[in-house]
Protein backbone atom coordinates (compact mmCIF):
# COMPACT_ATOMS: atom_id res chain seq x y z
CA UNK A 1 0.00 0.00 0.00
CA UNK A 2 1.01 3.56 -0.71
CA UNK A 3 -0.28 6.48 1.30
CA UNK A 4 -0.35 9.94 -0.25
CA UNK A 5 -0.86 13.19 1.63
CA UNK A 6 -1.40 16.39 -0.31
CA UNK A 7 -0.97 19.90 1.03
CA UNK A 8 -0.77 23.45 -0.23
CA UNK A 9 -4.29 24.10 -1.45
CA UNK A 10 -5.66 27.53 -0.67
CA UNK A 11 -7.77 30.46 -1.83
CA UNK A 12 -5.82 32.74 -4.15
CA UNK A 13 -6.61 35.62 -6.48
CA UNK A 14 -6.39 35.24 -10.22
CA UNK A 15 -2.82 35.70 -11.39
CA UNK A 16 -1.42 34.34 -8.14
CA UNK A 17 0.66 31.26 -7.44
CA UNK A 18 0.47 28.18 -5.28
CA UNK A 19 2.67 25.16 -4.75
CA UNK A 20 1.09 21.82 -3.99
CA UNK A 21 3.00 19.01 -2.32
CA UNK A 22 2.29 15.30 -2.19
CA UNK A 23 4.26 13.11 0.19
CA UNK A 24 4.26 9.35 -0.34
CA UNK A 25 4.78 6.78 2.38
CA UNK A 26 4.31 3.06 2.84
CA UNK A 27 5.39 0.73 0.05
CA UNK A 28 7.19 3.43 -1.89
CA UNK A 29 9.69 1.19 -3.63
CA UNK A 30 8.98 0.78 -7.30
CA UNK A 31 6.62 3.73 -7.51
CA UNK A 32 7.16 4.75 -11.09
CA UNK A 33 4.86 7.50 -12.23
CA UNK A 34 3.31 10.19 -10.09
CA UNK A 35 0.95 12.90 -11.09
CA UNK A 36 -1.67 15.47 -10.30
CA UNK A 37 -5.29 15.35 -11.35
CA UNK A 38 -8.10 17.76 -10.61
CA UNK A 39 -11.85 17.66 -10.40
CA UNK A 40 -14.08 20.71 -10.57
CA UNK A 41 -17.72 20.59 -9.43
CA UNK A 42 -19.86 18.81 -11.97
CA UNK A 43 -16.88 17.77 -14.08
CA UNK A 44 -14.85 14.63 -14.52
CA UNK A 45 -11.46 14.21 -12.96
CA UNK A 46 -8.77 15.23 -15.42
CA UNK A 47 -5.03 14.92 -15.72
CA UNK A 48 -3.09 18.07 -14.87
CA UNK A 49 0.51 16.86 -14.97
CA UNK A 50 2.46 13.62 -14.83
CA UNK A 51 6.08 12.74 -14.10
CA UNK A 52 8.01 9.48 -14.30
CA UNK A 53 10.84 8.30 -12.08
CA UNK A 54 13.21 9.36 -14.79
CA UNK A 55 11.80 12.86 -14.85
CA UNK A 56 9.78 12.76 -18.06
CA UNK A 57 6.78 15.03 -17.81
CA UNK A 58 3.57 15.76 -19.62
CA UNK A 59 0.92 18.39 -19.03
CA UNK A 60 -2.66 19.14 -19.90
CA UNK A 61 -2.80 21.75 -22.65
CA UNK A 62 -4.72 24.07 -20.34
CA UNK A 63 -1.81 24.35 -17.89
CA UNK A 64 1.22 24.22 -20.17
CA UNK A 65 3.51 27.15 -19.54
CA UNK A 66 1.86 27.94 -16.20
CA UNK A 67 2.27 24.78 -14.10
CA UNK A 68 5.41 22.80 -13.38
CA UNK A 69 5.56 19.34 -11.89
CA UNK A 70 8.69 18.16 -10.12
CA UNK A 71 9.72 15.24 -8.00
CA UNK A 72 12.15 14.74 -5.16
CA UNK A 73 12.81 11.01 -5.12
CA UNK A 74 14.86 11.24 -1.92
CA UNK A 75 11.87 12.76 -0.10
CA UNK A 76 9.28 10.69 -1.96
CA UNK A 77 7.48 13.91 -2.72
CA UNK A 78 6.01 15.37 -5.86
CA UNK A 79 5.26 19.06 -6.29
CA UNK A 80 3.04 21.13 -8.52
CA UNK A 81 4.05 24.75 -8.93
CA UNK A 82 1.08 26.68 -10.25
CA UNK A 83 1.58 30.19 -11.60
CA UNK A 84 -0.74 32.64 -13.33
CA UNK A 85 -3.72 30.93 -11.79
CA UNK A 86 -7.11 31.39 -13.39
CA UNK A 87 -10.61 30.97 -11.96
CA UNK A 88 -11.03 27.91 -14.17
CA UNK A 89 -8.20 26.24 -12.25
CA UNK A 90 -10.53 26.02 -9.25
CA UNK A 91 -10.88 22.36 -8.31
CA UNK A 92 -9.92 19.68 -5.85
CA UNK A 93 -6.43 18.54 -6.77
CA UNK A 94 -5.53 14.90 -6.25
CA UNK A 95 -2.15 13.23 -6.20
CA UNK A 96 -1.68 9.89 -7.93
CA UNK A 97 1.06 7.30 -7.58
CA UNK A 98 1.37 4.28 -9.85
CA UNK A 99 3.12 1.19 -8.55
CA UNK A 100 3.21 -2.28 -10.03
CA UNK A 101 0.06 -1.73 -12.01
CA UNK A 102 -1.92 -0.20 -9.16
CA UNK A 103 -2.96 3.42 -8.79
CA UNK A 104 -3.08 5.11 -5.41
CA UNK A 105 -4.83 8.40 -4.70
CA UNK A 106 -4.51 11.06 -2.06
CA UNK A 107 -7.47 12.65 -0.32
CA UNK A 108 -7.30 15.84 -2.35
CA UNK A 109 -6.59 19.47 -1.60
CA UNK A 110 -8.87 22.36 -2.55
CA UNK A 111 -7.60 25.12 -4.81
CA UNK A 112 -9.90 28.10 -5.26
CA UNK A 113 -9.01 30.96 -7.57
CA UNK A 114 -11.07 34.11 -7.23
CA UNK A 115 -11.55 36.55 -10.07
What does this structure look like?
With 115 residues, the chain is an all-beta fold. Helix content is 0%, strand content 58%. Strands 2, 4, 5, 6, 9, 10 and 11 form a 7-stranded mixed sheet that branches. Strands 1-3-8-7 form a 4-stranded antiparallel sheet, with no helix packed on it. Strand 9 and strand 10 form a beta hairpin. It is globular.
Short description:
The chain is mainly beta and 115 residues long. The chain is 0% helix and 58% strand.
Strand and helix map with partners:
Blueprint: E1 2-7, E2 11-13, E3 18-26, E4 31-39, E5 46-51, E6 57-59, E7 67-72, E8 77-82, E9 91-99, E10 102-105, E11 109-114
Question: Which regions have little confidence, pLDDT < 50, spanning 5+ residues?
Answer: none
Shape: globular
* Order of helix and strand elements from N to C terminus: EEEEEEEEEEE
The level of helicity is under 10%
Largest sheet: 7 strands, mixed
Structural class: mainly beta
Total beta strand runs: 11
- Computed over alpha carbons, the radius of gyration is 13 Å
Tally of contiguous helical segments: 0
Beta percentage is over 45%
Mean pLDDT: 95
CA(first)-CA(last) distance: 40 Å
